[in-house]
Amino acid sequence: MKCVIIEDEKPAAEKLLSLLALCDQPVYVEGVLGSIREAIDWLQQHPAPELIFMDIELSDGLSFKIFEEINVECPIIFTTAYDEYWQEAFEYNSIDYLLKPIKPEKLEAALKKYQKLKQHFTGNYQSLAQWPSAQSQGGYKKRFLVKRGTDYISIKAEEVAYFYATHKLVCMVDSSGQKFIMDQSLADIETQIDPAVFYRVNRKYLVNMSAIKRIKAYSKSKLLLEVAPLVTEDIIISQENAAAFKQWMGQ
């Protein structure tokens, strides 16, 4: 199995390397990358590894920023000394979250989980390939049940302007500007809604096409979205995601 380690502390990287060398299954480490910038450059220039071991707090910021710049397609095992990021980590291809100091049995269990997932999805490739057509036949979520005070109300999917993540919460905003707290992650919601209508423009926003009022060119080939109802922050689409977004808008 080919993997990459993203870790800025040399002792921690060396410890992980030694633990991987003792695992039952052979693991070939293609590179040890020490910063967000180094990781982005490497991933842009090489084929995706099968698995990434990723620390969260790096010397130049949180490693989640990597996902804002490039599309990371392989699974991630996060390795960190901090437990407060675990919920956010599972927005980014995470299959496990290992706290430092990493215990050999925890690492072995994480690798076995990866192999089981790989075998499962390989064995179910045909059903996965049929998934889009099944969804197009009416499998997408039509309504969301949300809570307002002590009452529950049903919001039609087409009335949702966008979903966004903030402070470890996910909120829905409808076309009239009402906001509701959701009990699901953005990643979970994304799998339930029609991709012809909603687009994950970045790690924070999942936007209904009808809510997009203006698209502006931004620095370094990025895009800036204006949506309604208005938001108080810039919604930026990365350079790597801009072409796919424009294709989606023109479908």
From TrEMBL:
SUPFAM superfamilies the record matches: CheY-like
Gene3D superfamilies reported in the protein's UniProt record: 3.40.50.2300, LytTr DNA-binding domain (2.40.50.1020)
PTM sites of type 4-aspartylphosphate: 55
Highest taxon in the source lineage: Bacteria
Annotated TM spans: none
Domain (HTH LytTR-type) ranges: 144-251
SMART domains listed in its UniProt record: LytTR, REC
All copies of domain Response regulatory, residue ranges: 2-115
KW Phosphoprotein (keyword) present: yes
Keyword Coiled coil attributed: no
Record keywords, A-Z: Phosphoprotein
Pfam families (alphabetical): LytTR (PF04397), Response_reg (PF00072)
GO molecular function: DNA binding; phosphorelay response regulator activity
PROSITE patterns associated with the record: HTH_LYTTR, RESPONSE_REGULATORY
InterPro entries: CheY-like_superfamily (IPR011006), LytR-like (IPR046947), LytTR_DNA-bd_dom (IPR007492), Sig_transdc_resp-reg_receiver (IPR001789)
PANTHER family per record: STAGE 0 SPORULATION PROTEIN A HOMOLOG, TRANSCRIPTIONAL REGULATOR-RELATED
Protein's UniProt name: Response regulator transcription factor
Annotated source species: Niastella caeni
